[in-house]
Write a structure and sequence with these properties.
The structure holds two protein chains of two kinds. Chain A is α/β, with parallel strands linked by helices. Among the domains of chain A are: about 100-170, no CATH class; about 270-355 and about 480-525, Rossmann fold, CATH 3.40.50. In chain A, the strands form four sheets. Chain A has a six-stranded mixed beta sheet with strand order 6-7-8-3-9-10, sandwiched between helices. A six-stranded mixed beta sheet of chain A has the order 16-17-18-13-19-20, sandwiched between helices. Chain A is globular and about 70 Å long. Helices cover about 70% and strands about 0% of the residues of chain B. Chain B has one domain: MetI-like (MetI-like fold, Orthogonal Bundle). The two termini of chain B are about 20 Å apart. The radius of gyration of chain B is 22 Å and the shape is elongated. In chain B, helix 2 (about 10-25) packs across helix 12. Chain B is mostly helical. The chains are: A alpha/beta, B mainly alpha. The interface of A and B includes residues 377, 386 and 391 of A.
């Protein structure tokens, strides 16, 4: 195999005042034709910066500090902008994480692909159109004639990513840089896109630089792996070797932090329900008017389930399955159309606004986005005591309890007097948990509470939840799209698809002997499932 | 925030100009104790023609510099007070519309549009004409024509902030809607309001000048617009009578705009229009 791209001692300098002087330091890598190289690291490790430097897309203030990147013997870092434009798209192409924002919302898919040819002055308009059609076919989009005339908003996330890939492939590049291309997608879609990239690699002999944070994805597609941490390469080698025999401590830690597929032992739980949902329904109507019928989405479709005291029920589903709406109905941020939400015998769905305010301590929620869930203008203490005080606690009691809770979630009481921006994502999520606990709820709804966190932080927060469950006998409705995470924490799993509950049962049962075809499909789509099993066997869990 | 603002060159120039104007306005009675109406020299004295009359005198022999300095008091006062009144109308209306949505929103927005469909200046003229020209009526008229943008801005900001997760969390804490709106939502909308307000002061000064120019100003108060209006008949023989008040208006409005832009960049660093390197 011949090297297509050789990066030597690449350094990327951050502007003064950043958390470290170099985003990437002394990065060296070789990319061979027909090879998939995965660059793995947590957020802030500099993995995306490397790709951006290659493409000349570094954000303002960030500059290449030194080193070379030889593409067929030519240093792309030294090329003038016009020469780079020639290179971009035609010989080195890139696909991005968020296919919605990477496509022009006002341009038809066919035109966007044809534009790539136009930008490089290739072919006549008729030929461009034909080529676009061929590409759409090649990336496996259904009904190419229709897709070519569609706008991005008319496609699903996975279809948009396919369209992005078609654009990237248009000029038959030798190198494809993929920056977290499947992170925003559902597991089943992710599996399809990974398969597509594998197919294209073998069909076209492209070299692929694949940037990801997910070792499951690495196990699925990588030939070579580079592990990055804080701008430095800590480990490199063949995928099989790195995954099975990691040398560096950091790689070992990362691998250990991945939620293993290993199932916890079943716990005895007394069947005293703390939450009971009875025939819950919620329909969203959009559009509609005098002449059109409204579009209806049955987000929650006649769902009944219960959570026992001290139990963790995992609610699993892909985006659009209605799992978040269900969670929000339980805390009544969304008012269901019909059905009952019985918490400790009180039907929350039937209360008036005023009555509800006095019952708010029954169910609390831990939110997904650690950066949006705390008021940036309030100190932490305020977030923790506002609720209890509104429930009638005295200020000094609430404050004492807030300090205790901050200790319990591992932050220390002195965190109370600080502002949210002084904390990292994982720490903020701990604050969110403490805030929920401060209300002494019967049930906590955790809506994708660890999804926005890096794996190692995710593992810590999951440990905390497990610890709290044991110490306080918490009942949790744990909403997630990640089956591996659900397996770690939950006693029972409920699987949702398009608003309906398709399967519910103890973790062991759902994972080992899934009944519903959709559950089977979800389990099969988890990236790196085979490797994971081998990994678990080896680590003896 | 303050550090970012002080790094903004334009904004610092704006602050400097505005500080001078404010100082002149504050110390006007000390600088020109005889007031702006006193006839102190022969009429049509050219600028710098005589010691002590740097900017010359007007058609009745009044000192132009005294008029400018006393006029600054009026311009700044009208600008500030009318903006405050406009905020007092616009912020609550926009906040309620954005927070409660549904029919509250519909009602408030239709009411706002009613004011927006009438050209600002025409409405201000009508209001002043009806209310009799006085400092109070001019201020009120300017406030009434300038609150709709505030209401719209606040409404949009409140709608954006109320969908944040911390607002959901506050709701789950059992806080009342009123407390959520006042304590959680509104404080997070202040930055764009501050920016808009600084620009509104500038617009108000221009409006007041325009009204006075048309003779709709308070007849007992010297203002920049009045000076230009009174001097327009002699503009070919005595240019300085309209030139200096004009420069004063331009500088003050420019200063306020620079400050507004600086505040915008300082409060919303992600939106600052600095290009990529």
């Amino acid at each position: 195999m011949s090297p297509v791209l050789e990066i030597t001692d690449l350094s990327i300098a951050l502007p003064a005042g950043a958390d470290r002087p170099l985003a990437v330091s002394d990065m060296t890598l070789t990319l061979n034709a027909g090879e998939i190289l995965c660059v793995v690291g947590e957020s802030g490790s500099g993995k995306s910066m490397t790709a951006n430097a290659l493409m000349g897309l570094l954000p303002g203030g960030v500059t290449v500090g030194g080193g070379t990147a030889l593409f067929h013997g030519q240093d792309v870092l030294q090329l003038p902008e016009t020469a780079r434009q020639q290179l971009r798209g035609s010989r080195i192409a890139m696909i991005f994480q968020e296919p919605m924002t990477a496509l022009n919302p006002l341009m038809r898919i066919g035109d966007q692909i044809a534009e790539v040819f136009a930008a490089h002055n290739k072919f006549t308009p008729a030929e461009r159109r034909q080529k676009a059609l061929d590409l759409i076919q090649e990336v496996g989009l259904p009904d190419p004639k229709k897709i070519i005339r569609a706008y991005p908003f008319q496609l699903s996330g996975g279809q948009r990513q396919r369209a992005m890939i078609a654009m990237a492939l248009a000029l038959e590049p030798e190198v494809l840089i993929a920056d977290e291309p499947t992170t925003a997608l559902d597991v089943t879609t992710q599996a399809q896109i990974l398969q597509l990239i594998l197919d294209l690699r073998s069909r076209r002999g492209m070299a692929v630089m694949f940037i990801t944070h997910d070792f499951g994805v690495v196990a699925e597609i990588a030939d070579q792996v580079i592990v990055m941490r804080q701008g430095q390469v800590v480990e490199r080698g063949a995928a099989a070797v790195v995954l099975t025999h990691p040398q560096h401590d950091y790689t070992k830690r990362l691998l250990a932090a991945i939620p293993s597929g290993a199932l916890p032992d079943a716990r005895e739980i007394a069947p005293v329900p703390v939450l009971e949902l009875r025939n819950l329904n919620k329909v969203f109507r959009t559009g509609g008017g005098l002449f059109r019928t409204a579009r209806e989405v049955r987000a929650v479709d006649n769902i009944s389930l219960s959570v026992a005291r001290g139990e963790v029920l995992g609610l699993v589903g892909e985006s659009g399955s209605g799992k978040s709406t269900l969670g929000r109905s339980v805390v009544r941020l969304v008012t269901p159309d019909s059905g009952q939400v019985l918490v400790d015998g009180v039907d929350l769905a039937a209360l008036t606004e005023e009555e509800l305010r006095h019952q708010r301590d029954k169910v609390q929620m831990v939110f997904q986005d650690p950066y949006a869930s705390l008021n940036p203008r309030h100190r932490i203490l305020r977030a923790l005591i506002d609720g209890p005080i509104a429930m009638g606690k005295s200020k000094s009691d609430a404050t004492t309890r807030a300090h205790e809770l901050l200790e319990i979630v591992g932050l220390g009481a002195e965190a109370a007097s600080r502002f949210p921006h002084e904390f990292s994502g994982g720490q903020r999520q701990r604050i969110g948990i403490a805030r929920a606990l401060a209300m002494e709820p019967d049930l906590i709804v955790a809506d994708e509470a660890v999804s926005a966190l890096d794996v190692s932080i995710q593992a810590q927060v999951l440990d905390l939840l497990r610890d709290l469950r044991a110490r306080m006998g918490l009942s949790i409705l744990f909403i997630t799209h990640d089956l591996r995470v659900a397996a770690q924490l939950c006693d029972r799993i409920a699987v949702m698809q398009t608003g309906q509950l398709v399967e519910i049962g103890p973790v062991q049962q759902v994972f080992l002997t899934p009944q519903h075809p959709y559950t089977k499909q979800l389990l099969a789509a988890v990236p790196g499932a085979d490797w994971q099993q081998a990994h678990d066997l080896r680590s003896g869990t | 925030m303050i550090r970012r603002f002080s790094k903004h060159k334009g904004a610092m120039i704006g602050v400097l100009i505005l500080a001078i104007v404010v100082a002149l306005a504050v110390f006007a009675p000390l600088l020109y104790p005889r007031g702006p109406w006193a006839m102190v020299q022969r009429p049509f004295l050219q600028p710098m023609a005589m010691e002590g009359f740097l900017l010359g005198t007007d058609t009745l022999g009044r000192d132009v510099a005294a008029g400018l300095v006393h006029g600054a008091r009026v311009s700044l006062l009208v600008g500030l007070v009318s903006t405050l009144v406009a905020l007092l109308i616009g912020v609550p209306l926009g906040a309620l519309a954005g927070f409660y949505g549904a029919w509250v929103d519909e009602g408030a927005m239709r009411f706002t549009e009613f004011f927006q469909t009438i050209p600002n200046f025409a409405l201000a003229i009508v209001l002043v004409a009806i209310l009799e020209p006085s400092l109070t009526s001019i201020t009120l008229a300017i406030a009434i024509v300038s609150w709709p943008p505030v209401a719209r801005l606040v409404r949009a900001e409140v709608m954006a902030v109320k969908s944040r997760e911390y607002v959901d969390a506050a709701r789950l804490s059992g806080l009342s809607n009123r407390r959520i709106l006042i304590e959680q939502v509104l404080p997070n909308t202040v930055s764009p309001i501050i920016v808009l307000a600084s620009l509104m002061v500038a617009t108000a000064i221009l409006l007041e000048s325009s009204l006075s120019f048309l003779g709709l100003g308070d007849p007992n108060i010297m203002s920049w617009g009045y000076m230009i209006g009174a001097a327009r008949t002699v503009i070919r023989s005595a240019w300085w009578l309209s030139f200096f008040p004009g420069v004063a208006i331009v500088l003050t409005v420019l200063a306020l705009n620079l400050i507004g832009e600086g505040l915008n960049d300082a409060l919303n660093p992600h939106l600052s229009r600095k290009g990529h390197a």
